[in-house]
């Protein structure tokens, strides 16, 4: 079997799907890309059993065939080559592979493609057409807040609820919760599912801007198709926490402030906070916000005063600065509102200037301060 392909085109397509390949996979064959040629089209597949990605590249080939090629070795070779046509010569009996370039020859041993796991089928219970920009916004606004605790598998993915007029994306790790809604994405039926974090991070890395994405969902799997790439992942079969009841409704204390000013101040003050708890104190009174932190172990302390627009009773509330910085850093709004009801209840961060078709709510749990513990 023999085919010719552009080194840069092959490298770009392989780089898009390489994130699927695990460094220490359960089955050794998964360290390989599966190459399959049919009628002048090369389909490359990468899989870790939970997630599968495929990409298609037109090549100059005279016959059909398939082989599994070591992913790391091939990528390292392509990265070091200048742009040029490369020729792959494959012995279909021994799976020995040669890569021929203008001035070099590289030999590597492939593996039997029959051992590579089959691409899972997605029985289309529901399909949705959406723009890659809308999907990227949804992923960027939620995936960072998913949990890394495998003992709570439902929280390690993003919950997606599709109704006939909107799509709701929710992520939580128990300390914060993000609810992101879009009215330009909808489904024909009321469907709920949980998409794993790894699949969304792979989409985030490989989705181009301004293309159409076809999302298809079955009971067990989800498929996202765009350009010449397809990602199929196994959905998380768990019950997502009842997040609506966690969102406080009667928030009479509202602070409105510039996001960048608050973010920069928090970054400075958290340097002086306890290294373990990252605890900072927000004191609100008379349109003034005082941010303070102290680390008793090292006698470090700092505080800053910022002007804000505050409606409510004077109050002090504690937060984990690391969580606040990450949440504010993922926003693009110029002004944000922090809505609170009491020092021991969750605070809500809401962008003051909303984009069309979207609604974002960020919930962050407080930490106990000594003054009211």
UniProtKB/TrEMBL annotation:
Subcellular location, record wording: Cytoplasm
The record, for SMART domains, names: POL3Bc
Show the GO cellular component annotation of the record. cytoplasm; DNA polymerase III complex
Q: Tell me which residues make up the DNA polymerase III beta sliding clamp C-terminal domain.
A: 246-362
| Pfam families recorded | DNA_pol3_beta (PF00712), DNA_pol3_beta_2 (PF02767), DNA_pol3_beta_3 (PF02768)
Q: Enumerate the GO terms in the molecular function aspect.
A: 3'-5' exonuclease activity; DNA binding; DNA-directed DNA polymerase activity
Q: Which GO terms describe its biological process?
A: DNA strand elongation involved in DNA replication
What domain of life? Bacteria
Residue ranges of every copy of the DNA polymerase III beta sliding clamp central domain listed in the record: 130-242
**Residue stretches making up the DNA polymerase III beta sliding clamp N-terminal domain:** 1-120
Keywords, sorted A to Z: Cytoplasm, DNA replication, DNA-binding, DNA-directed DNA polymerase, Nucleotidyltransferase, Transferase
**Family designation:** Belongs to the beta sliding clamp family.
PANTHER family this protein is in? BETA SLIDING CLAMP, DNA POLYMERASE III SUBUNIT BETA
**What is the purpose of this protein?**
Confers DNA tethering and processivity to DNA polymerases and other proteins. Acts as a clamp, forming a ring around DNA (a reaction catalyzed by the clamp-loading complex) which diffuses in an ATP-independent manner freely and bidirectionally along dsDNA. Initially characterized for its ability to contact the catalytic subunit of DNA polymerase III (Pol III), a complex, multichain enzyme responsible for most of the replicative synthesis in bacteria; Pol III exhibits 3'-5' exonuclease proofreading activity.
Quaternary structure and interacting proteins, as annotated: Forms a ring-shaped head-to-tail homodimer around DNA.
NCBIfam families per the record? dnan
Name this protein carries in UniProt: Beta sliding clamp
Please name the source species.
Answer: Rudanella paleaurantiibacter
């Amino acid at each position: 079997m023999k085919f010719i392909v552009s080194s840069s085109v092959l490298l770009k397509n392989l780089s898009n799907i390489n994130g699927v390949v695990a460094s220490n996979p359960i089955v050794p064959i998964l360290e390989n890309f599966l190459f399959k040629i049919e009628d002048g089209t090369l389909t490359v597949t990468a899989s870790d059993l939970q997630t599968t990605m495929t990409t298609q590249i037109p090549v100059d080939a005279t016959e059909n065939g398939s082989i599994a090629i070591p992913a790391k070795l091939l990528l390292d070779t392509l990265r070091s080559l200048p742009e040029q046509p490369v020729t792959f010569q494959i012995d279909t009996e021994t799976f020995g592979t040669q890569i021929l370039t203008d001035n070099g020859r590289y030999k590597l041993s492939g593996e039997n493609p029959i051992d590579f796991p089959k691409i899972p089928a997605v029985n289309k219970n529901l399909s949705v057409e959406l723009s890659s920009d809308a999907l990227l916004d949804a992923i960027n606004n939620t995936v960072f807040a998913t949990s890394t605790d495998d003992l709570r598998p439902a929280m390690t993915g993003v919950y997606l609820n599709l109704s006939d007029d909107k799509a709701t994306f929710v992520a939580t790790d128990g300390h914060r919760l993000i609810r992101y809604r879009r009215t330009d994405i909808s489904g024909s039926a009321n469907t709920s599912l949980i998409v794993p974090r790894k699949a969304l991070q792979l989409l985030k890395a490989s989705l181009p801007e301004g293309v159409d994405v076809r999302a298809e969902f079955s009971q067990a799997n989800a498929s996202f198709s765009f350009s010449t790439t397809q990602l199929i992942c196994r959905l998380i079969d768990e019950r997502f926490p009842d997040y609506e009841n966690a969102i406080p409704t009667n928030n009479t204390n509202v602070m409105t402030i510039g996001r960048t000013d608050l973010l920069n101040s928090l970054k400075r003050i958290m340097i002086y906070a306890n290294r373990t708890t990252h605890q900072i104190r927000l004191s609100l009174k008379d349109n003034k916000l005082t941010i303070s932190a102290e680390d008793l172990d090292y006698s470090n302390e700092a505080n800053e005063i910022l002007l804000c627009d505050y409606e409510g009773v004077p109050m002090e509330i504690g937060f984990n600065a690391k969580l606040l910085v990450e949440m504010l850093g993922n926003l693009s709004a110029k002004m944000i509102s922090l809505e609170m009801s009491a020092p021991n209840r969750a605070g809500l961060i809401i962008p003051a200037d909303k984009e069309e078709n979207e609604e974002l709510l960020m919930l962050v749990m407080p930490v106990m301060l000594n003054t009211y513990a």
